[in-house]
Amino acid sequence: MTTFDANTGGRATGRKRIAVVTAGLSKPSSTRLLADRLAAATGRLAEADTQVIELRELAAEIAQNMVTGFPGPRLREAIDAVTSADGLIAVTPVFTGSYSGLFKSFFDVIDKDALAGTPVLIGATGGTARHSLVLEHAMRPLFAYLRAVVVPTAVYAASEDWASGGETALAARVERAAAELAALVAARPGRQGSEAAPEAVVPFEEQLAALAAEG
Questions:
Q1: How far apart are CA 113 and CA 125, in angstroms?
Q2: CA 210, CA 139: separation in Å to the nearest integer?
Q3: Per-residue DSSP letters for 173-184?
Q4: 3-state SS string for 30-83
Q5: Backbone angles phi, psi at 69, to 5 degrees
Q6: pLDDT tens across 154-201, in order?
């Protein structure tokens, strides 16, 4: 279900964690390649662990969840990884001028409040540059609705961007977007896995005794 960046095996104490959602359907996939580049750059700049979630491996469980309302174990693990992360990278291929149905379905099964305040870097891949506006007219509004914080720079990679002529420009966009996400992740208070001491719980009997004394 999930894969981890080569230099991590999970969450290390005191380190931030970035979830990477990729909706590519083929293997190998240009969508996964872009997601890996964004993850590598952000992980390096933020000194964070990265966890990659391949939606193609969860397609059956996502469809079942849409019908039954209950996630299977692998999908539950993926949802938990995304909603507990300090930052999110989300990359989709362009289908019919928008994000893929698999990509949308995954975020449909996540609670609408679970990503509030989460820094997000959005990316997409397609055959031609004319589809690049999918980032602004489809993906950015989606995460705005979920009340996530989307970084200013979105990254689109067309077929020509993987050739030698477009590689330099693509690399520059990747670095700029990664720097923006890294800055937001670094500034965000730690979430799950932080070393903050848990708040002390006062027994109910003691609370009643304190109220009686005040009276």
A1: 27
A2: 52
A3: HHHHHHHHHHHH
A4: HHHHHHHHHHHHHHHHHCCEEEEEEHHHHHHHHHHHHHHCCCCHHHHHHHHHHH
A5: 85, 5
A6: 999 998 888 766 678 899 999 999 999 999 999 988 654 444 333 445
Q: Map out the domains of the chain with their CATH numbers.
A: 2-214 (3.40.50.360)
What pLDDT digit, counting tens, does each position of 72-96 carry?
Answer: 999 999 999 999 999 999 999 999 8
> What average pLDDT score do residues 127-141 get?
92
3 state DSSP class of 205: helix
Count Cβ atoms within 10 A of the Cβ of residue 192 and give its class: 0-12 exposed, 13-18 middle, 19 or more buried: exposed
Please give the structure tokens belonging to residue 131.
């589809």
What type of residue is 165?
Answer: G
For residues 174 and 78, give the distance between their C-alpha atoms in angstroms, rounded to a whole number: 24
pLDDT at residue 30 tops 90: yes
> Could you tell me the pTM of the whole model?
0.83
Q: Two tokens at 201?
A: 């719980």
Those residues whose C-beta lies under 8 Å from the C-beta of residue 60, and which sit 6 or more positions away, are: none
Q: Distance between CA atoms of 101 and 57, rounded to whole angstroms?
A: 14
Query: Which tokens in the block code for residue 127?
Result: 């055959």
